[in-house]
Amino acid sequence: MEMLSDERFREQLRLTTRGLAFVLSLLEDDLQSSTRRSAALTPAQKLSISMNFFDSASIQRKTYGYSQATVSRVIAEVSDVLYSWREEFIHWPDEDRLAETRMAGIPEVVGAMDGTHIKIIAPVVDEDSYVNREDYHSLNLSIISDANQRIIWASAKYPGRVHDSRMSC
Questions:
Q1: Other beta carbons within 10 Å of 132
Q2: Which of 70, 100, 122, 145 holds its CA 20 to 30 A away from the CA of 59?
Q3: Angstrom distance (rounded) from CA 118 to CA 120
Q4: Which residue ranges does the record assign to the DDE Tnp4 domain (predicted)?
Q5: Number of domains in the chain
Q6: What is the pLDDT of residue 1?
């Protein structure tokens, strides 16, 4: 993998080198390859490939010289590991936090929700369900963030054809 300047690193991966090091320290054990092959990807390479994909929201493609199949496998692996950490970082507010929002003049508002489509390769099963209104295959990604721009809920479980009004927390 090529060496990037700090600015280019942040631009390409949407994390500082320090931020990536923190995430890597959490996920490294879960991303270790248990293969005897000498060319196994390191946890840092897997995380970088995935962060590049998450940032671009583009279809999976050859990245950093790795095949599309490798990129696809790595994204799935890293996504599963990130998902396993969700309860550590994503929480619904407790009563104290809700009281804070009332004091801030926004009673009963926990956060703001928005969504986007993540391009995917057409699945073999139920392919039609994944074609969105812009006529490409995708998953619906919904995120709720609080007033401090912290993600408090996220989901990518709905196929691209599902309308926003049918998605729920």
A1: 18
A2: 145
A3: 6
A4: 113-167
A5: 2
A6: 47
Q: What are the backbone angles phi and psi of residue 118, rounded to the nearest 5°? A: -105, 115
Examine the fold and report which residue of 67, 86, 105 is the final residue of a domain before the chain moves on.
86
* Structure token digits, residue 83: 């998902």
Question: pLDDT tens digit string along 40-80?
Answer: 889 988 988 888 787 765 656 656 678 888 888 898 899 99
Which residue has 């926003």 as its token pair? 164
Strands (E), 15-168: 112-119, 138-145, 151-159
Last residue of a domain, one of 22, 52, 86: 86
Q: How far is Cα 146 from Cα 116, in angstroms, rounded to an integer?
A: 18
Which DSSP string corresponds to 52-87?
HHHHHT-----BTTB-HHHHHHHHHHHHHHHHHTHH
Parallel/antiparallel/unpaired status of strands 112-119 and 151-159: unpaired
81: in domain: yes
Percent helix, strand and coil across the chain, each rounded to 5? 45, 15, 40
What is the reported pTM? 0.57
Q: Where residue 103 falls among pLDDT bands split at 50, 70, 90?
A: low
